[in-house]
Structure formats: structure tokens, C-alpha cells
């Protein structure tokens, strides 16, 4: 499949066919496809001009802004590998990712100068190039716009093949260390084509990308709109503002956006007089992902966005899109994640021996998609665990009903999804376990009306020790991103901690116990 277009090729094609067409926009500036093509070429050559080569890894750390679109295309054009980094991570977490992928450069927003400055002091970072957006704070930094200078054109761009790696998307692992998911150009092109086919997008569509540009969700939808020649509006607000979202949807005549349940709940909670100010008639398609949505919420979404068709999807950074719950199925199969995408793969639900289980029985969910990832960066053991032949699993447990719909039972080894962000309990448990007073700890997700789930820590202290919720939270904030820090903490005795016969903590039993206690208290 070497003939499949990369996003670099796609932008070049759109620049030739529709040079004046609006390709991307944020609150500060716009890019026609012709401008996008030119600036991506200049940036690719500018990166080569500072010594970077095909195959080098380039970290990207920034809030949402139009430069993400330029950078992704430029790196594809130069055959370099994009390493998008979640801006909510702490300096040690960011440093680990940069060291693990052996990043040759980091492009960052000015808001992160202090964090990046602390990382630069480490020995492993001494030979790395540092590019800063908007400014050039001190010696040793390279200004982003300086790389756009035309004199860089003397550098010949390499030939890039679609089966080559285009990105490493880091996702937290159950061992607490992030894993680099290897994505190639072919996979991204196939996801784009499958998305356009299944959801009916055309070059006349305009997408508002609200999710962070470092997330697979925004990346995959950006790829889709690039390949079809649509328009991407980048929501560059540093925090979510529900009324501002409506203002942009109306002003830009947006036809599609993807949000998590928390976003929809915040929009619907606005006063009627506020919501009535904005014309939502252009919004024809809406996506909700990352957490289940209650029937009342779905009905309210469809009532407010009266011309909108609602979709839900399940997927992963590794497998790409796996299932889709289509507009006509939203209320009929409430709680299901849908069925397979058209022409995009098959699903098996198997037992511990790899045998298919009967409909209605819970097993591990495996998918076989044409755009599956190539493996985990420098982690052959985890790569081998993810595959059974051509079938891929990220550890989700589910069941299939008699109509072929998939229902998730447990997410990625007890993963918590809070406000659309993935939180792996083991990572939080590792940090809390470093507190000398703590004997044992289990981290679970509890239902939350606003965030979908909230992080809750259940702690056993050593005999004679005392601790407070605030103390535990303060400890966590020194090493963890804010969304991973427990929003609530419970202290129990060792005898009260539910365990298997071999001593493993039963996270599911804890979720049931504390969810029940929450319901009683409510």
C-alpha cells in the first residue's frame, strides 16, 4: 500500500486543486491550502537546516493552536516522526517521554518555557534542539518563525513512503510508564478514508477540533479533513468555555465537532437565554466518546442540536476506530459502543485460551483493523502481549449481544476516564505508594456527573500512622498531572481491603462498594 497518500501529499494535492480554500484556522490566523503547503515546506527544510534528518523524533508540547497543523504536515514532508506530548503532564513525565523516544528536537509553546528549561538541564537533553513558538527567550533556543525563512530551500526533501513511521503517540501503560504507540502513514490514511466513508464527510464540511491536538481523537479527525480537503477550526482556548464553543460553532458555520460527555453536560447546563443566542443549524454531525452517556443527556443533545446526527465510537490509539454507534441506534442500544465500522475490520471476544465466547458472555475484546499500530516503541514484550496473530487487544473486556452490538465491561485493566483523559490506576498507585505512611493503596474510578469518572484513592496506612486527603493530594501533585491526582481519598484497614486468594486487590469490588456508598449518601 505504498501508494497511499501521506498528509503531506494530501495538503500538496489540495493546494494544487483548491489553493484559496481555507484549510485551517484558529483565533489568531488562517491558512489556505496554498499557504499551508508553503509553510509546511519551509518548516520541513528549516528543520533539516538545523541538522535534523529523516527518521528523527520531534516532540511537540503546546496548547491547541494552528501551528500543530503546520508541524504535523512538515514532519511528514521531511520524513521525521512526530511525538505529541500531553500539555498536562509534569516535567518528569515529559522528560521520560523525550528520553524514551530519544527525541532529537522539541517544539514547544512559550507557556512551557520554565518546564522545558528544567528539562534542558538534564545530561540526556544536552544535544537536543529546542524550538519555541512566538518568541526566542534566550540563547540555545530557536524561534519557530526563524525556521520559515526561504533560504532553507537549499535542503532537498527526502522521499517518504507511506509504510514508514509518522508518529509515536504515548499512552500510559498499566505498569505506570507511558508506551510509544508506533503509527505509520498508511494507517492514518486508512483511518481518514474510513471516517469520511462511514460518517459522510466531504470537502464542504468544517470541523471544530476541541480535544487536545496531542490526542488521537483530534489527530485522526484532522487527518480525515486534510485528506478530503475540508476545513479545520482549532479551538485554541486554554480551558473549555461552553458559551465560547457555541459562539465558534455559529460564527464559523461548523458542521462537525467531537466532544466528551463532560463538554456536552457543560453546554446543556447553560441558561436557556444563553443557548438561544447562537444558531446551531449548521451542525450536522456530532461525536461523543471516552465515556458512556445517559439517555437524558443524549435526548438533550439532540434537542438542542436539532439538525445534528449523534455518533459514538470506541477505539484506541493502537487499533484506531473499532466500533461505531450510529445515529439511529443511539437510544435503542443505550450503553453499547456499537458495531464494527464499515470495511474497517472485525471483532472477536475471546476467553483466556483465545477461544471465541458465546454471545452474552464476557471476554477480552480483540480487533483486526487495516490501520492497526506497528507496535510499541522499544517494547517488544508489550507489543507481543497486544497481538494474537493479526488480532490486537488493549486489554478491554466486553461482550457481544444477540444483535451484534458490543458492550464494554471493564476498560483497559481498570483504566479511569475523567473528563476525556485516560488515567491508569497503577501509575497513581505507584506515586501514592511512595508516601512513607502508606502501606497499600488502590485507585479506582467513581461515577461523576460532570467528569464521567473521578479518581478516588483507597488507602491502608501503616499501623500508628495518620494522614489526610489534602496531604495525599499535595503529595500526588508533585509528580502527577492534575487530572491524575485523586479528587477524593478514603482510608480503610488492611482487613477491609478486598483481595483475591493470591492477595491481589479486587478493584471491581472496591468500585462497587464505594459507588454504592455514594448512592446511599446521595
TrEMBL record:
Family matches, as PROSITE patterns: AMP_BINDING
Q: Which residues form the AMP-dependent synthetase/ligase domain?
A: 14-377
Cross-referenced Pfam families: AMP-binding, AMP-binding_C
InterPro entries from the UniProt entry: AMP-bd_C, AMP-bd_C_sf, AMP-binding_CS, AMP-dep_synth/lig_dom, ANL_N_sf
> What are the alphabetically sorted keywords of the record?
Ligase
Signal peptide range: none
The residues covered by the AMP-binding enzyme C-terminal domain are: 427-504
Q: Which family does it belong to?
A: Belongs to the ATP-dependent AMP-binding enzyme family.
Q: What is this protein called?
A: Class I adenylate-forming enzyme family protein
